[in-house]
Amino acid sequence: MKLLLTSAGISNTSIQDALVDLMGKPIAEASALFVPTAIYALPNGADIASRVIRGSIGDPFCDMGWKSFGVLELTALPSIRKEHWIPLLQETDVLLVGGGDCQYLTYWMKHSGLADLLPSLLQKTVYAGLSAGSMVMTRFGTTYGGHTLPADSDKSLALVDIAIHPHLDHEWFPQNSFANLEKLAATLPVPSYAIDDQTAIKVIDGTIEVVSEGNWKLFTP
């Protein structure tokens, strides 16, 4: 399993180099699929999704000069024949999973069938997450309540036995202060990584490496 779990995307050279290393090829020779689903549970989610795709908001993620690029919308997959999308997914070099609402993303990863495919898919394909797209793979996820799912719906897939707290000390997220995240980490039974937008967590078959040009902190239970 090859994961690059970022706070804000491919925000610096070190994180980009880590992605290239995981793929084993340059970005210009790689194919990518973007999953925008989690964004739709946010206010103005459709507009945000389009801006992420165009690269007009945030750090580079979709707009990096991929050899080929497509969009995989999880909410549509249950009504589409599997032979129309699974082969494309299996041939893709990197799955880019955007941020938003973890609970909503987890629900649709499971309901679409993607969650069942991930363990085998990620033996070859790289998973690159952004914010909630990163958190969904761990033991800790959050919800913004911008959906009508049952309150007890799972908030993450728990494929990696850690927690990630992105956007450390970001001005847009005052609740993500170091002090607040330290208190939150103390309530969790797994190691917690508080990471800022210049930091990512690289995971290869359970081996974890922090890639950073910024600030981060590991809290152990």
Helix content: 25-40%
Rg (C-alpha, Å): 16 Å
- Looking at this structure, what is the CATH superfamily? Class I glutamine amidotransferase (GATase) domain
Helix count, DSSP H or I runs of 4 or more residues: 7
SSE class: alpha/beta
Beta-strand proportion: 15-25%
The name of the CATH architecture is 3-Layer(aba) Sandwich
Mean pLDDT: 95
Distance between termini?
A: 25 Å
Q: Low-confidence stretches at least 5 residues in length (pLDDT < 50)?
A: none
Going across the biggest sheet, name each strand in turn. Answer: 3-2-4-5-1-8-9
Number of domains: 1
**Total count of strands:** 10
Q: Give the CATH topology.
A: Rossmann fold
List the helices and strands in order: EHEHEHEHHEHEHEEEE
Summarize the structure in words.
The chain is α/β, with parallel strands linked by helices and 221 residues long. The protein has a single domain, classed as Class I glutamine amidotransferase (GATase) domain (Rossmann fold, 3-Layer(aba) Sandwich). It has seven helices and ten strands. The strands form two sheets. The protein has a seven-stranded mixed sheet. The chain has a three-stranded mixed sheet with strand order 6-7-10, covered by helices on one side. The protein is globular, with a radius of gyration of 16 Å. The two termini are 25 Å apart. The model has no long low-confidence stretch (mean pLDDT 95).
